[in-house]
Amino acid sequence: MFLLIFIFSTILSCSESVTVQFKLRQLPRFYTPLNDKIYLATSFNQWRPNDPQFEFNSVTKSLIVDFQNLTNVEFKITRGSWATGETWADGNFSCFK
């Protein structure tokens, strides 16, 4: 019993965690509806474009994520679906479809 607890605690102490804060400084002003929710789709959350755990705070436009046991994370910003995931600053998204 003691050995099992010791091994388990050793494994836990070796796991690494990195906390990252994402902060949106600017959204395409005329092309992002005010009530749209903004999400972070990542390789960490299986690229789900509307994962509630990865929703930006609507007031502060920030999101804090705790990544565990990762060496590389890829991400994209979405408005809840891949159809509304990317636009140019002028709102043009034709080249992304």
Describe this protein's structure.
By secondary structure, the chain is α+β, with helices and mostly antiparallel strands. The strands form two sheets. It has a two-stranded antiparallel sheet. The chain has a two-stranded antiparallel sheet with strand order 2-4. The radius of gyration is 18 Å and the shape is globular. It has one domain (15-96). Helices cover 13% and strands 23% of the residues. The longest helix is centred in the first third of the chain and has 13 residues, at 2-14. Residues 1-17 form the signal peptide. Keywords: Signal.
Radius of gyration, taken over Cα atoms and rounded to an integer in Å: 18 Å
Strand order of the largest sheet: 1-3
Secondary-structure element order, as H and E? HEEEE
* Proportion of strand residues: 15-25%
Oligomer: single chain
Can you give me a brief rundown of this structure?
The chain is α+β, with helices and mostly antiparallel strands. It has one helix at 2-14; strands at residues 17-23, 39-42, 62-68, 75-78.
Secondary structure elements and pairings:
Blueprint: H1 2-14, E1 17-23, E2 39-42, E3 62-68, E4 75-78
Antiparallel strand pairs: 1-3, 2-4
Signal peptide: 1-17
Keywords: Signal
Defining key terms:
97 residues, disordered N terminus, alpha+beta
